[in-house]
Automatic annotation (TrEMBL):
Protein name listed in UniProt: RNA-binding S4 domain-containing protein
UniProt source species: Chitinophaga tropicalis
Residue segments, region Disordered: 91-131
Extent of Basic residues compositional bias: 104-117
RNA-binding S4 domain location: 7-68
Length: 131
């Protein structure tokens, strides 16, 4: 899919689902977290096929090569066809270590405070309300 019109970098990064919003994509560009050939690039930079970008997000580090231009956000399975992930092996391993240690805030099952149902069962077992 070849587009002749110019496509902004922040819009492209949002469309291929590296960032959840265009605002986050442009903020990352302005903060210097998106680089091309080692130099920071602005959000309004035109994207071209064959460009290689280094992107740092909160979750991971990416190195991608543009293989197609995508202006509108599509589902993930379609979006991955428009870039090639060329992240070095050591960075991918660091990303996996980070993901493994990431906690979602949900407690593991059957550990910690009882649920409301478990609390009622305990109260019934113990012989009524204990307050």
């Amino acid at each position: 899919m070849q587009n002749t019109e110019k496509l902004r970098l922040d819009k492209y990064l949002w469309a291929i689902r590296v960032f959840k919003t265009r605002t986050q994509a442009s903020a990352a560009c302005e903060a210097g977290k998106v680089k091309m050939n080692g130099t920071s690039v602005k959000a309004a930079r035109a994207v071209g096929i064959g460009d290689k970008y280094e992107i740092r997000t909160e979750a991971r580090k990416w190195v991608i090569e543009v293989v197609g231009l995508l202006a509108n956000r599509v589902q993930y399975t379609e979006a991955i066809k428009y870039y090639v992930d060329i992240t070095p092996e050591e960075d991918q391993q660091a990303n996996q270590r980070t993901a493994a240690s990431f906690h979602t805030g949900k407690r593991p099952s059957k550990i910690g405070r009882p649920t409301k149902k478990e609390r009622r069962e305990l109260d019934d077992f113990m012989g009524g309300e204990e307050e």
